[in-house]
């Protein structure tokens, strides 16, 4: 059965805005939760560079890479107004370890 062109245009006129609305309503703070049963290695001591105006230092941390931990070196985060940087960290809950992503806190 063939759909008349005017009905096909109407269908697209409704579907496209709905698709954009679904993408726009996705929360920016959604995170992937990482749960591991193996404790991370001790945090490495890194030298913290001198102050850099407009940036906050995000210290290095261990990231789970599927079969083991890999070190991610520290880096600068652009400062957000009226917020402080809370670094990511591993948190033990029972036998599991959860990665809590770094974030800006007001």
Automatic annotation (TrEMBL):
<feature type="signal peptide">
    <location>
        <begin position="1"/>
        <end position="30"/>
    </location>
</feature>
<keyword id="KW-0732">Signal</keyword>
<dbReference type="InterPro" id="IPR024447">
    <property type="entry name" value="YXWGXW_rpt"/>
</dbReference>
<protein>
    <submittedName>
        <fullName>YXWGXW repeat-containing protein</fullName>
    </submittedName>
</protein>
<dbReference type="Pfam" id="PF12779">
    <property type="entry name" value="WXXGXW"/>
</dbReference>
């Amino acid at each position: 059965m063939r759909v008349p062109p005017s009905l096909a245009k109407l269908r697209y006129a409704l579907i496209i805005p709905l698709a954009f609305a679904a993408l726009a309503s996705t929360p920016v703070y959604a995170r992937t939760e990482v749960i591991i049963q193996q404790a991370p290695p001790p945090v490495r001591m890194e030298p913290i560079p001198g102050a850099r105006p407009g940036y906050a230092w995000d210290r290095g941390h261990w990231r789970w890479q599927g079969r083991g931990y890999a070190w991610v070196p520290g880096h600068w985060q652009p400062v957000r107004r009226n917020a402080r940087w809370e670094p990511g960290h591993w948190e033990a809950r029972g036998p599991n370890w959860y990665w809590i992503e770094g974030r800006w806190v007001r």
